[in-house]
Specification:
With about 500 residues, the protein is α/β, with parallel strands linked by helices. The chain has 18 helices and 7 strands. The chain is about 45% helix and about 10% strand. Strands 1, 2, 3, 4, 5, 6 and 7 form a 7-stranded mixed β-sheet that branches. The longest helix is centred in the N-terminal third of the chain and has 23 residues. The protein starts with 5 loop residues before the first helix and ends with a helix. Bound molecules: 2-acetamido-2-deoxy-beta-D-glucopyranose (2 copies). The site of one 2-acetamido-2-deoxy-beta-D-glucopyranose has 3 residues, from loops.
């Protein structure tokens, strides 16, 4: 063995020095709390998946007794429901398979080959195996974009069965047209949700005999947000740099979360918001489609990271569809007015069921005055709002629903009472007694919406009658400009 020439020893020493300097520049050896999703039987974070939360983990239990009121008998059931669990939209189905495959391959490469995983807070071997075996379900193609899934069907079918058990006095006997009023928006997922609900009530396949009302052209009852340019303008404002959601996306807390997620997955750079959202969306969808299974994509987040992602969504919804948008409540005028009109009369129909979308449920809850916090959620008060009432996961999971139940009571002073249920849990208002509300008080509280002037309240009275109202403005602008240009040319 010959000794190494001194020059090589020097070079080796130099290399060692450089290496240790480089690794000192990447103190990426720790990131977050140690967490192993595959070995967590509770997985409480699945209750914080915002509007892609599974209904099963949110709704009130069938054993609940909140609906039983001494000396009162339920006499009418009015329901506003979101569709059940669905497939992703077209854009997501087109992009996600490749985006996710690339991310998965990079993460495995980071762990297996590059060995850039952190020392503390790294993914456990079981979670990595989950990810290794992940495949995009080839049955999910754009032909089925946003379709109701099998679980989505069951969401509505079993909701119907539980409500029928609770309120058997209202849901008695076979289907009789006069007793039941149903309506859904013009989408596959709400139509299928209606059918599932009907099947839950009357037996498998019974929906073919149940006639829903046709949806009118401008459905201001179920989709008021589709015909209001002011709503769209506010929605756009929420994407501006100074909106609370945008500010949160730039906040140290959120940037640190992105950095932690990236470090944990072995990346030596920060993933983009889009990349993190791709993983989160897939996690949330897969968990909602297969409630008992473990979605590999949920394993890439710790519980605390999920809470931060949930908050980001809540900031968006709060300022788009709820207390953060002063005109939101009035958009639900037609729905509140419809509810009050039905509850006012004991006559048929005794069951009213509407099948719509998350936005309508959020607008409606806002009009009811439900789930309001003393403080508004903002970009800078994440920790103060940890126990907030306004949580899109609780308010609008898949199949989210508000049921208003009319009770006929023996109380001679107030014979009619109402309980409002959100996702099968009684809503507590300070003007009701543990959820039980006097009819006179209900009328008083929602008088604003029942004075027959929804046309005036709705969209500040400026609602365009047609869907393409915004488009018309553009067409008018363009044609006005053309006229000016043409006139200028003509003058030459
Ligand atoms: C696709 O659908 C078929 C028929 O319903 C089913 O047998 C198969 O397991 C599905 N494929 C996947 C990847 O889930
Ligand atoms: C990632 O983001 C964190 C938090 O904003 C920042 O401190 C860090 O420098 C970023 N890392 C890289 C490699 O850019």
């Amino acid at each position: 063995m010959t000794a190494l020439p001194p020059s090589i020893v020097t070079q080796l020493l130099l290399l060692v020095t450089i290496c240790s300097t480089v690794s000192a520049q990447f103190p990426a050896s720790r990131c977050c709390e140690t967490y192993c999703y595959s070995q967590d039987s509770d997985r409480t974070q699945v209750k914080h998946f915002a509007t892609k939360t599974a209904y099963e983990v949110i709704h009130g239990p069938s054993s609940s007794r909140e609906h039983i009121v001494p000396n009162c008998r339920p006499s009418k059931f009015w329901l506003l429901s979101r569709h059940g669990t669905r497939l992703p939209g077209k854009k997501a189905i087109s992009a996600l398979p490749q985006t996710l495959k690339n991310l998965r391959d990079s993460i495995l490469d980071n762990y297996d080959v590059r060995r850039t995983r952190p020392d503390v807070g790294r993914m456990c071997p079981d979670d990595l195996e989950l990810l290794r075996n992940w495949r995009w379900d080839s049955n999910i193609t754009t032909d089925y974009e946003s379709f109701l899934t099998a679980q989505g069907w069951n969401d509505l079918k079993f909701l119907a069965k539980r409500e029928q058990d609770r309120f058997y006095e209202v849901f008695n006997g076979p289907y009789v047209r006069e007793n039941y009023l149903f309506r859904h928006t013009k989408t596959q997922r709400t139509e299928a949700s209606f059918r599932a609900f009907a099947d839950g009530l009357f037996g498998d396949g019974a929906y073919v005999h149940v006639n829903p009302e046709p949806e009118p052209a401008d459905d201001t009852l179920l989709k008021p947000y589709d015909f209001c340019p002011a709503y769209d303008a506010n929605k756009d404002r929420n994407k501006d740099a100074n909106s609370e959601q945008s500010k949160f996306l730039r906040s140290p807390l959120f940037l640190q979360t992105l950095s932690d997620i990236s470090t944990r997955l072995g990346f030596q750079y920060n993933l983009s918001v889009d990349q993190v959202e791709a993983m989160w969306d897939q996690c949330r969808f897969e968990q909602a489609w297969h409630i008992q299974e473990y979605s590999p994509w949920c394993s890439v987040f710790t519980k605390e990271q999920v809470n931060v992602l949930e908050y980001k969504e809540d900031l968006g919804y709060y300022y788009q569809n709820s207390y953060g948008y002063p005109k939101a409540a009035d958009l639900a005028c037609y729905a509140v007015s419809d509810m009050i009109q039905h509850l006012a009369r004991p006559e048929n129909p005794t069951v009213i069921g509407y099948f719509t979308h998350e936005t309508e449920i959020q607008l409606f809850l806002n009009a009811l005055g439900a789930k309001q916090d003393r403080e508004a959620p903002r970009a800078d008060n994440y920790y103060a709002m940890r126990n907030r009432q306004f949580r899109s996961s609780e308010l609008t999971p898949f199949a989210a629903n508000v049921a208003a139940v009319r009770y006929q009571c023996t109380d001679p002073r107030e014979p009619v009472k109402v309980i409002f249920f959100l996702n099968e849990k009684a809503l507590m208002f300070d003007w009701c007694k543990v959820g039980l509300c006097d009819w006179s008080e209900v009328q008083r509280r929602y008088q604003r919406y029942t004075e027959g002037n929804c046309a005036k309240l709705y969209c500040g009275g400026s609602g365009a009658k047609r869907v393409n109202g915004g488009g018309n403005v553009l067409v008018m602008l363009v044609s006005a400009m053309m006229t000016v240009v043409l006139a200028a040319i003509a003058r030459k």
